[in-house]
Amino acid sequence: MFQLIDTKKTAIEGRMNCFVRTVAIIWTVLFALPETSACAAGWRLSQAAAQAAQDTPHQDAQHQDTQVPAATATEQQAQPAQQTPPVSARKDASHENTEDGTPATVIDDRDAEGILGKNVYSAANEDMGRVVDVIVKRTGEVRAAVIDFGGFLGVGSRTIAVDWSALRFPTSGPMDHIILELTRDQVRLAPEYKPGEPLVVLGLGDVQPHPETPAPEH
Amino acid sequence: MQLVALGRAPPSPSRNSLHGLDWFVFFLADAQVGFGPLIAVYLTAEKWTQGDIGLVLTIGGLVALIGQMPGGALVDAARSERVVAAFAVIALAASAFMFAAWPVFAVVLAAKVLHSAASCILGPAIGAISLGLVGHAALGNRFGRNARFASLGAGFAALGMGTIGYLVSNRAVFFVTVALCVPTLLALRMIRAGEVDAERAHGGRAAPHKGHPEEPLWSLAHNRPLMIFAGGLMLFHLANAAMLPLTASVVTMRSSDSAAPLVAACILVPQVVVAALAPWVGRQSVRLGRRPLLLLGFGALSVRGALLALVSSPYTLVAVQVLDGISATVLAVLVPLIIADVTRGTGHFNLAQGAVGSAVGIGASLSPMIAGYTTDQYGSAVAFFGLAALATIGFVSVLLLMPETGKGPSGPVTEVLRKGATS
Asked: Using CA atoms, how far apart are residues B120 and A191, in angstroms rounded to an integer?
């Protein structure tokens, strides 16, 4: 009888021991995490900073578009949103910047918006997925948008790079409805976009030379 | 240990408890759908970069992998499986709420880790509650029922959440997931605490170990059938995990106008097959034994891989998914059943579930890498053939190495218990 109770006690102790260890492990996992996440967030911030640093010349050029005529939002409205600034304009921009400090421009939030995560539709209003990335060349020229196309509940989608000039942005209303001048049939067969490999950009390409390619360097 | 089992009253769970378990499994599968690949879509819409999404998913996957054994050990150590499961469901709800409310990096990472940890507990907990309620003799039928309700839940949720995501927003899906945790907890409450025998739920009483907590791990490592089974399952998931995404990707590529409905069908067809077949597989696991069914599951997977490589019409690709349903049914019923067989009387049923879960996790996370690389280099047909070859290796190793676990030396005892349960 005592023997039995004894073994039972050991068993319970064993279980408790096991339990305590398990809790300790889970504790470590849960509490190590905020730190990991903090690290990751830090890493993210530094990445974002690096990104911002890279973006600056491009942004300058963008200001300049509005700055040269007059720094008002209405002027900006007159400019088609998708037109990429000519590279030559950027040179002038940096000159002017040095003259009178850092210029700032107010752009109406209805006229410009972040593009990541926006829905893309075909001209026939078919769902073409979402913008997940934007490809920029060393010259600062926006070359392509990477869209996540097809699938259901996130299964079976394909990431495909499409020519920037094949995108049309809404001239009024919310920016959520971006039009891609390609059909589903053209997009579905395109090779997938893979970072770190030569880029296949699907688009109007040779058929119709896009306006920003022959930008004079000097 | 078996004599002790004979001395105890045979389990006689009430209808309420059994229905409670049905609905618990159903709603839990519902709630888990939102945490699938949809997370990536949601975070993309929230302006997350692909690199950050990948980082969060990878860390979540690693936690889910590392947490399997501690999760199982926790369930083994628990005095009430219901209470442990309830806490895990609450953690799941909290995680879904965090996803929906603050889609910023730190919160989403914490939510993903919380979800992974909760899943590590919920997986073994379902097996433990089932075993604690019905005992070994009726377990085959019980796991058949569990599989039916789980796939019904997942199927309905995939349809419902797909619709909500399309019509309302992806964020709404996570609020629905929070809401689904309420019926999950209510169903858990329906299971009567007194009927879930903790000792039975752990697969017997653990042998007292003398201050060496790692002893259970050694005893598992020396459990030859368990190790063979875990290895076989790793191969199965190495072949299986990438097959559906690869199929869906091929369907997206091949079909212009109806790709989304066809991919949805690729996901739903196996669920329908599981819901239809699972109770039958549960019954046959008692009649025929585990081995023939296990071979059927592995065989269906290799045939599926080979067919996917050969077939080109998107509609035929969907039809091939019936085979996915067959192997999914077999695995859903037999994995917990065989683990219960081979850990009978050890008291480490749930730790073993965790160990097998780790093996499955390793296979499932390596699978997309192998398939992705092969697809890039040689095309999807070669990738499908490669996966089929892996499945065939699994088939052969089960055929040569895996013993029958359902009718062993414990056969007569099982018979007595079965009579006890039916009378």
From this structure: 37
From residue A158, give the alpha-carbon distance in Å to each of A97, A132, A145, B282: 42, 11, 13, 38
d(CA B233, CA B299): 13
User: Which among B45, B114, B255 has the least Cβ separation from residue A130?
Assistant: B45
CA A118 vs CA A129, A152, B175: distances in Å = 8, 17, 22
- A186 phi/psi in degrees, rounded to 5: -75, -40
Structure pTM?
0.75
Instruction: Please state, as a whole number, how many other Cβ atoms lie within 10 Å of the Cβ of residue A57.
Output: 13
Please check whether residue B421 is in contact with residue B138, taking contact to mean a CB–CB distance below 8 angstroms.
yes
Cβ B233 vs Cβ B335: under 8 Å: yes
Give me the pLDDT at residue B94, please: 96
Tokens of A199: 């880029």
Question: Can you tell me the ipTM of this complex?
Answer: 0.74
Give the tens place of pLDDT for each residue, B350-386: 999 999 999 999 999 999 899 988 988 898 899 999 9
Subunit contact A151:B247, Cβ cutoff 8 A:
no
Instruction: Report the residue from A15, A148, A158 with minimal CB separation from B253.
Output: A158
Contact B130, B21 (CB under 8 A): yes
Q: Are B223 and B34 in contact (CB under 8 A)?
A: no
What span, in angstroms and rounded, lies between the C-alpha atoms of B272 and A113? 44
pLDDT classification of B410: cutoffs 50, 70, 90? very low
**Does residue A121 sit in helix, strand or coil?**
strand
Beta bridge partners of A168: A179
B50-75 pLDDT, tens digit per residue, is 889 989 999 999 999 999 999 999 99
CA distance A157 to A139: 31
**Rounded mean pLDDT, B284-300:** 92
Distance, C-alpha A168 to centroid of its chain = 17
* Pairwise CB contact (< 8 Å): B248 & A22: no
Residues B25, B69: Cα–Cα separation, whole Å:
21
d(CA B150, CA B271): 9
Cβ atoms of residues A103 and A92 within 8 Å: no
Partners of residue B38 in chain A, C-beta under 8 Å: 153-154
Q: B165 falls in which pLDDT band (50, 70, 90)?
A: confident
Evaluate if residue A22 carries a pLDDT over 80.
no
